[in-house]
Every structure is written in C-alpha cells, then in structure tokens.
Specification:
Blueprint (H helix, E strand, L loop, with lengths): L13 E6 H9 L13 E5 L2 H14 L13 E4 L10 H22 L7 E7 L4 H16 L8 E8 L6 H15 L11 E6 H10 L6 H15 L6 E2 L4 H12 L3 E10 L6 H10 L12 E9 L10 H15 L4 E9 L6 E8 L4 H19 L5 H27 L5
Parallel strand pairs: 1-2, 1-4, 2-3, 4-5, 5-6, 6-8, 9-10
Antiparallel strand pairs: 7-10, 8-11, 9-11
Helix pairs in contact: 1-2, 1-4, 3-4, 4-5, 5-11, 5-12, 6-7, 11-12
Length: about 425
C-alpha cells in the first residue's frame, strides 16, 4: 500500500459519507455549517428513500437554537437497491452495495467530490443493515474497483454501537459489523484504515449530564462536535495531525486500528487548566475505556487566536502538559498533540482526545455471544449454510484481532 499523500499543503481534504439511517442522521448535523476541510463533500446513501429524506427534514427542523435553520451546505442524496430497505440484515445491505456499486454508489461518491478528497469519513450505525452492511464493502470495493481518484482513498469510519435497549439482533449485527470494518472477511487483512467507535449508551449519558434529553439530535450534536475537531487538522496548526499520522500510528507502530474519542468544549482558561480540560474530555469518552490499556493517544487543542503565546497556549506548553498527563494514566506506544488557533472563536478553548488500542474484550464479553447464537441458528436452517459459514469466518477474524490486541498489551506490560 502506498503512503497517503495530501492533495493540499495547508490541510487534509475530507469527504463524508453517511450510510443508512443512522449515518444519514449524523451527516446531516453538518448542514448548519461550512467546514473548511469538508466543504460540500458530503453525501448520503440509503436503501430506503423515506429514511434518508426524513433524516434531512428532521435535522433541518430541530438543529439550532431558533427553530428551523438555513442549511449552509449542500448534501447529496442517493438511493441504491430497490427502495425496500435492508431489513436490519447487513448481508442484504452488502448485497445491494455489491449490485449497485458501479452505478449508484460510484455516482454518489463522485457527484459529491469524494474522489477529490484525501480521506473519506464514513458514518454508520453498527446495529442496522444498510450502513453496517454497505460501508465495509464500499471500503473494499473502492480499493479494488474504485477507478480514478478512489483507489488510493484513505478510509476512516465513525461507527455507532447500539443502545442497550435495542434488540439482541442489533448487537449481533454490531459485533459482525465491527469485525468486517476492522478486517476483510476473506483474507483477514485490514479493511478500514481507522475505526472510531462510539457507544450510544455513553453518548446518552453525556447528553443527560448536559441537562438535555437523550434523543438523537442531541446525541448526534455531540458526535458532530468531536468530528469538527477531528477533521480540522492542518488549519493554522502547530504540530499538524493528519490522515498520515493517524494511519501510521495505528498500522505501523501499534498494529491496531480501533479508536474512540472524547471532547470538551468552551473551557474557561481563567478557571480550567489544560490538564483539567484533558480530563474533562476523558470523562466524556464515547466508549467505556480502561485507560491502562490505551496504547495510542492524540490530543488536539483549539483556542482563540488571542490566547496564543500565553502561558498555557504555546506548542511547548501543550507538549509538556500532554506528556505529564498521559504518563500518569496510560502506557502509550504512540502519542501526538496539535495546537490550532481559531480566528472566529472568541472565548474558551476546546479539547479533543482520541484514544486507540484499548481493550475491546469487556465489550465483546457482553455482546459477542449474541453473534455466536446467530451462527448456531443459521447452522440449523437447511437453506442458510452459506450464512453460517460467513458468520463463522467473521467471528474468527474478530478473534484474531483480539488476540493481536492482547499480545500487544502483554508486550507493554498492560494489565487488562
């Protein structure tokens, strides 16, 4: 695989693909802003037209503080499949993606300018069928069949784990979906370059702590706030973190590529120290994480331009604080920090913390048996032997990834 090459010296050019109902809703949260790193490179795909249109309509109605907002960008909307949906079956979502890749999906990617980006950020819910089924396939297909501008794309995925109240089938889908994002089903090699996980249970807790109801607009707003910072690298920054840094850290230095993040916005510099703001972001992490098992950490600080050069807001001060902070909490193989000034931000500073390589076994101990139950059920259905065989391979790939993770933790002396 060739090294990622940025097409802009100033910043990474991102593109966003919202797949399925959950991914559509997250992508729509960018409607009220013009993001310099993304622009209009956002598109929605779905196997059910009504779900896609509803995501746009409801988002326009509910985001913002004064009722209906005026969209600041154009989001493409594209159907694939036969408009019946995937019925919460990822294999059905994959089947539609396979069938319509060369027509509807490639057209959707190119019409949004995704083929001109440095990296594609795919958004999906892991419990469903359309996004969960299509995104792993689209990543594979762009590399194998993508055509000009798509084959060398770097693939980042933001994937949402189902809430505990959702059906057992959705959690089985999530386990299988995570495996298919991490590893190619047939070969067991890496699929996506970077998989960012969030747990809807954690996001609901964060929203409630803010004094809001845990409904999807507020949950997706928290996600958008994190992705705003994640995709901003390179803009008036010291210590730029871009797609190359994230990929090299995970793939080459650690050998794992699962992550999560936390964000703390509008910290008062008169009251909140940098280290305290890092802790605030940790407490708002999108997954439950054993910090002792974190092997990669990236911190991004965004501050108003007028704070630059003050005691805490120099590149060296942030570097020193980050070093003290992670040394007390983690066993890192990779650590990076970046400092960005914002000419439009007036008060307060923002912090994004990205954590990688942490122990996935507690999550798997809670949910993996649900996938294994699906395998046993498929084995007992005469006309579904192929489904059982595929699910077994997906589960085996996940076991291989977990074994690699455990071995790394043992090498660095981590006690899970």
């Amino acid at each position: 695989m060739t090294e990622p090459v940025l097409r802009s010296k100033e910043q990474t050019n991102w593109a966003v693909l919202g797949a399925g109902e959950g991914g559509n809703k997250i992508a729509c949260m960018f409607l009220d802003r013009k993001h310099a790193s993304i622009g209009n490179r956002i598109t929605l795909i779905n196997t059910a037209q009504a779900d896609m249109e509803n995501a746009v309509r409801e988002t326009v109605k509910r985001i913002g503080t004064s009722g209906t907002v005026v969209p600041q960008i154009t989001i493409g909307r594209h159907m694939f499949g036969d408009n019946t949906g995937a019925g919460n079956d990822p294999f059905e979502g994959e089947r539609f993606a396979t069938q319509y890749y060369d027509t509807a999906i490639v057209r959707a990617l190119r019409s949004a300018g995704i083929d001109k980006a440095d990296a594609m950020l795919s958004l999906c819910a892991l419990g469903g069928g359309t996004g969960n089924g299509s995104v792993p396939y689209i990543i594979k297909a762009t590399r194998e069949r993508g055509g000009a501008g798509l084959q060398n794309m770097r693939h980042f995925v933001f994937a949402a784990w189902p809430h505990e109240s959702e059906a057992k089938q959705k959690h089985a889908n999530a386990v299988a979906g995570l495996s298919r994002l991490l590893m190619l089903e047939e070969s067991g090699k890496r699929n996506a370059d970077f998989v960012m996980l969030c747990d809807n249970n954690r996001l609901a807790e964060i929203v409630v702590q803010e004094g809001n109801k845990p409904d999807w607009p507020d949950i997706n707003r928290v996600i958008r706030d994190a992705l705003d910072l994640f995709t901003i690298g390179g803009q008036d920054a010291e210590g730029v973190m871009d797609v190359k840094n994230f990929i090299q850290g995970g793939q080459k230095q650690v050998g794992l590529h699962h992550f999560t993040c936390g964000v703390a916005l509008d910290n008062d510099p008169e009251v909140v120290t940098l280290e305290k703001a890092f802790d605030f972001a940790l407490r708002r992490a999108f997954m439950a994480v054993n910090l002792q098992t974190v092997t990669m950490a990236y911190v991004l600080v965004r501050a108003p331009a007028h704070l630059k050069g003050s005691d805490d807001f120099t590149y060296k001060a942030i570097a020193d604080t980050f070093e003290r902070w992670h040394t007390k909490r983690m066993n890192l193989r990779v650590g990076m920090h970046s400092f960005i000034t914002s000419p439009t931000k007036k008060d307060g500073f923002d912090v994004l913390v990205v954590l990688g390589g942490f122990d996935l076994r507690p999550l798997m101990q809670q949910h993996r048996h649900k996938l294994q139950e699906q395998i046993a059920m498929a084995e007992n259905i005469p006309d579904e032997p192929h489904r059982a065989k595929r699910l077994k391979k997906i589960d085996q790939n996940l076991e291989s990834y977990l074994a690699r993770m455990t071995k790394l933790h043992e090498m660095v002396g981590v006690k899970s």
